[in-house]
Write a structure and sequence with these properties.
By secondary structure, this protein is of the alpha+beta class. The chain contains ten helices and ten strands. The chain is extended.
């Protein structure tokens, strides 16, 4: 019964009886009208055996997903621990510089007028918003703008492999790396890192580690950051060889814990889809023998 109540068939039935208002709800009378398929209804013993086998299969999928989720939680804690350890240095152990001191250039952007087709219709140019800055690599964006938008607004092209920091409101302090050239709105600050000073991925891991501290530097009612605050923030600069070692370790954890194409999140998503597929198949029966 519990598994069946999670199916689309069950939800499609009760939707007909939901009362809408300030709060959508269904009462016991409406819920009682939902029908549940009972395999082999004329043979109770056979019916229960079939139900037990269906439950056994779905329990297996549920347990596997739970194990993977627990594994992901453990790896995230491990990642946080090693990141903290690898990016902590004793006083005088390494040179400290400001973020402004290790950049070639900073970039920001603009928001073309919303709804204006000249700026958006059939656009091909990636345009990043702060809600897409989520401590990860950015290889695709949700919105694209036109060449007209780039030529007629303050939008600017940003080269690949910049460290992007959100500087506005609820997103302030979050970071990402753009793996493709793109444009952004005005609430993203993009740092092009001097390769002779620091690896951009090392800077990304440092900025991600310091998310809460950076966010705490926000000003005004919305807690906004700005270019001046970001560029004054200090970062330890070990030799490039040590930066490379640190990045190699943290990137492996990053892939394992956040990648939707390689890591545990992908595995969990695949198992979830597999579970839903088999649940719907196992809990779908013909209404009568003629439909079998």
């Amino acid at each position: 019964m519990a598994y069946f109540t999670r199916t689309r068939l069950f939800h499609d039935q009760i939707k007909k009886h939901i009362r809408t208002g300030k709060i959508s709800a269904i009462n016991s009378k409406g819920l009682g009208k939902a029908k549940i398929p009972i395999p082999s209804p004329n043979d109770i013993e056979k019916s229960l055996k079939i139900q037990e086998e269906i439950v056994r299969i779905l329990d297996t999928f549920t347990e596997l997903t739970a194990e993977l989720t627990a594994e992901l939680t453990a790896r995230k804690k491990q990642y946080s621990y090693y990141r903290e350890q690898l990016l902590t240095f004793e006083k005088g152990e390494v040179e400290w510089k400001t973020l402004g001191g290790i950049i070639i250039k900073t970039y920001s952007g603009s928001t073309p007028r919303a709804g204006d087709p000249k700026y958006y219709n059939n656009g091909t140019i990636p345009w990043l918003r702060t809600q897409e800055v989520r401590f990860s690599d950015i290889e695709e964006v949700e919105i694209r703008i036109t060449n007209f938008a780039v030529e007629n607004t303050a939008v600017k092209w940003i080269p690949a492999n910049c460290v992007i920091i959100a500087i506005s409101g609820a997103t302030a302090g979050r970071s990402a790396i753009n793996k493709i050239p793109l444009t952004t709105n005005q609430h993203c600050l993009c740092l092009e890192i001097k390769p002779q000073e620091a690896l951009y991925r090392y800077v990304f891991h440092w900025v991600s580690l310091n998310y809460e501290k950076l966010k705490g530097l926000g000003r005004g009612a919305r807690g906004d950051l700005n270019s001046s605050i970001i560029k004054k923030y200090e970062i330890p600069i070990p030799p490039l060889e040590e930066q490379e070692r640190i990045v190699d370790i943290l990137d492996k954890f990053d892939i394992l814990t956040t990648s939707i194409s390689e890591g545990l999140p992908k595995e969990i998503e695949l198992r979830r889809k597999q579970y839903e597929y088999y649940r719907d198949k196992l809990l779908t029966f013909p209404k009568n023998p003629a439909e079998a």
